[in-house]
Structure formats: C-alpha cells, structure tokens
C-alpha cells in the first residue's frame, strides 16, 4: 500500500478542500458493510449524498491517479466527552451519595416485589460504604447526578437511598460489654502517661463480602432512562465463562472491553487508606477501569448483565456476579 500513501500525500489538500469532506486516509474498500481486500484512498464525508446532487467540481472521482477511492459517511467528529449532568439520567454517567465524590450509575433495575424502577450501583457509591451501623448513610439520603465531585449540588438530587447490603470490614469495633470495659480501663491508664492518646479495640470479623451494592429510588419515574451510554438497553442476564469478552460503560474511562481472567475469586480489597475487606465469589477481568468507574454494569457481547464493577488495580478490574447482587438486593432486570 506504499503507492497509496505516496499518492495521498500529493492529493490530500485537494481532497480535503472539497465541501462536505471531513477527512482522508488509506484503507480497504468496503462494499456495503463488508470490508474487501482491495486497498483504496478512503474519503470521509459528513453526509453521503447522491452524485447527481453534487456539483461536478465537488464530486470525488472513482479513482485518483489510477487508485480506487471509497467514500464513507462519518458524520461530525468531536471529542469524546461524557456530559456530567443528564436528564433523564442514564447508566454510565456520574452519580453518588451526597457525602462521596462520584461513581457510576450502573443500571436501571426493578424491585422484585413491587416492580418499581430503581437505580443500581455500589454501596460505596450510593450508601457511602456503610456497614449499616456506622452512621455513614441512612435510608432516604440524597443521591446526586452528577456526583458532588463533578459539580452535583442539592438541586441535582435525582433519587434517595432505598436499600443496601452492608459492607463488612476486615476489622470492626466490638460491641460487647467486655471489650468496652477493657478499652475503658486501658484508656484510664494510658491517659496518665499520654493524655493525647486513646486506646481502641478491634475484632477480626473473619467474614467476607459477596457484593458491594445498593439501590436508590428515583424522585420521579421520568428522571431516569434505562439505556446505558454507548451500550444501549440491557438484554437480560447472562452467564460468566472463563475467557469470555465483557464490557462496561463507566463515568471515568467510558466504554471498554476485556476478557475474564478468573472467577470464583476470593481477595482482599482496600476500602479506604485505613480499611480493608475480604470479598469472595468475585470475577477478575483485564478490561480497563479507572477510579470513578465503580458501580458500572458489566455486560457480555449480547448486552446481557453479568456483573457489577466495584474495585480494580492498575491492570485488572474486579466485579460481583450479578446473580449475587440480584438475589441479595431482591431486584431483577
């Protein structure tokens, strides 16, 4: 194809000067939706028009210096930015409990008992990472779209926290009277030596999480739509298989895809700089994810839900099996 590139350098500016042309390059000619193995000068136009509607001087020839051309309608090309505030709000966009920064609106689901539409995301996105006893969140708390980090304010409230599965930490403060008494005695002694210090006792929970999930109830039915950004509507629930391709639409990294690396995984996840928790029956994938993508729905190539993204490292993303999320939250698609 070297001849095509040399020719392109000679005719580039002339072709780009034609009305309606948005770009030009080298590729393989297409017939309908199928790509052939025939090299061609590819001309991208904003809108493909009938030859008869074009002035003779504005028509793109079938050949340029003996080389075939192919005209492709590309539309208007623009930077791929995700709008922060959307009404109706849709999955794949920024969302969050009023006390957090921002995460991802995962999906629109239905309450298994009432059938009402709900917003699905993580506990740490919609419920501030609560264990249900720490006061971090309460049922009815405001949910903002976009999240606070993305400029969300009280006026951007689109839902209220409706239900969540508590997050279990690796170590928790004990509630028993014996531990409280021991801590009290210890603090009495420590304050005689180091008045600024305080003793706290923690217990190892030896328990693991299966999910990081919560749902919020929209303030009105019309404030949300179920079409996932760049993916479309969810087509039911699928099964996870080793090596299968999955994708997600997230607030930070947009639409990305990758393969399942492992399932049935148990691993330790940092919940904050000071806290961690164990998670079991998880799925690991090599799809790209970034901070702020938490809460994204994971779907297969047929747009069937298979997981809920909640954590990741520099190279891998971790997600809950969607069936576990559905069973525990009592929701369905």
Written account of the structure:
An eight-stranded antiparallel β-sheet has the order 6-5-9-10-13-8-7-20. A six-stranded antiparallel beta barrel has the order 14-15-16-19-18-17. A four-stranded mixed β-sheet has the order 1-2-4-3. A hairpin with a 2-residue loop joins strand 3 (about 65) and strand 4. The protein has helices spanning about 1-15, 125, 175-195, 320-330, and strands at about 20-30, 35-45, 65, 65-75, 95, 105, 105-110, 115-120, 140-145, 155-165, 170, 205, 215-220, 245-250, 255-270, 275-285, 295-300, 305-310, 315-320, 330. The mean pLDDT is about 90. Among the domains are: about 1-75, no CATH class; about 170-205, no CATH class; about 245-330, Beta Barrel (Thrombin, subunit H), CATH 2.40.10. It is mainly beta. The protein contains four helices and 20 strands.
Shape: elongated
Q: Provide the helix percentage.
A: 10-25%
Rg value? 27 Å
- Report the uncertain regions: none
The end-to-end distance, rounded to whole angstroms, is 49 Å
Structure summary, number of beta strands: 20
Looking at the structure, the CATH topology of the domain at 245-332 is Thrombin, subunit H
- The first-level CATH class of the domain at 245-332 is given as Mainly Beta
Mean pLDDT: 89
Strand order of the largest sheet: 6-5-9-10-13-8-7-20
Q: Report the CATH superfamily of the domain at 245-332.
A: Trypsin-like serine proteases
Q: Which H/E pattern describes the elements?
A: HEEEEEEEEHEEEHEEEEEEEEHE
Beta-strand fraction estimate: 35-45%
Quickly give the CATH architecture of the domain at 245-332. Beta Barrel
Main β-sheet description: 8 strands, antiparallel
Organism: Desulfotruncus arcticus DSM 17038
InterPro entries: Peptidase_S1_PA (IPR009003), Peptidase_S1_PA_chymotrypsin (IPR043504)
Protein name: Trypsin-like peptidase domain-containing protein
Region (Disordered): 132-151
